[in-house]
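seq as requested:
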Amino acid sequence: MTLATITTYLHSFALVLIYLLIFAIFARAAASWFIRDGGGSVMRFLFDVTEPVLAPLRRFMPSAMGIDFSPMVAIVVLYLLGQLLA
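struct tokens:
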């Protein structure tokens, strides 16, 4: 296995992780509109996966009128990062 092959695999793996994280953030935001009990296993998984990305954004962005814009900002930033890697 050459270095170029390993680099290609790592690049593809990073892109897949970025797009899976975008999907998880979107799923968490959409589920929050319909699911009020966050104690389910799917919601706990989405919380555990997305909170390390969303929590730092919330520190810098206060919610406006009770609306949390951090998922939208995180999706845009991750999408741009994915485009830079592509």
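The mean pLDDT is 90.
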